[in-house]
Amino acid sequence: MFLEKLMPSQFVESIHHIDIDQLKRNNIRAVITDLDNTLVEWDRPHATQEVINWLARMHEAGIQVTVVSNNNKERVDRFCAPLNLGFIYAAKKPTNRAFLQAVRQMNVTIAETVVIGDQLFTDVLGGNRLGFHTILVVPVAQTDGFWTRFNRQMERVALNWMERKGMVSWRRKA
């Protein structure tokens, strides 16, 4: 069923609640992460110190990170370039292309990679379609860009269905 493809492998409050040691124990060597409302607010141009520290912990653990965003080159480059962070912009998630490009660039397999994001219809659906372990985070900001607001309405419908079926145990901030 389509809605089951929207079910993330894991729910966490934020990227800071992801157990990096557990990732290592599970032989995870790479992370594909969304940018807007996953790492920072959609309208924040640069990384916070907390995100910089999280990226440093990933690096220390030997886990590569690539940002895969549906946003434009200017937005994604402005965030990633100062961090020397690999990225793919205009990703057209949930299509496969950018996810597969990211694993090729990092020279890892899907089984060695997790996908982290704040949206069911882009990050989770895209990752699940290819067999990635997917981690859904609560959006960093309570506001969204124009196109994301529509997705959020559809997500509420899907999350309500998942809750009724006993598939989720916590509610996202909405």
UniProtKB/TrEMBL annotation:
**CDD domains given for it?**
HAD_BsYqeG-like
Keywords, alphabetical: Hydrolase, Magnesium
Statement: the UniProt record of this protein carries the keyword Hydrolase? yes
Instruction: Please give the Gene Ontology molecular function terms for this protein.
Output: phosphatidylglycerophosphatase activity
> Which InterPro entries does the UniProt entry name for this protein?
HAD-like_hydrolase, HAD-like_sf, HAD-SF_hydro_IIIA, HAD_sf, PGPP1/Gep4
PANTHER family according to UniProt: N-ACYLNEURAMINATE-9-PHOSPHATASE
Name listed for the protein in its UniProt record: YqeG family HAD IIIA-type phosphatase
Q: Which organism is it from?
A: Brevibacillus formosus
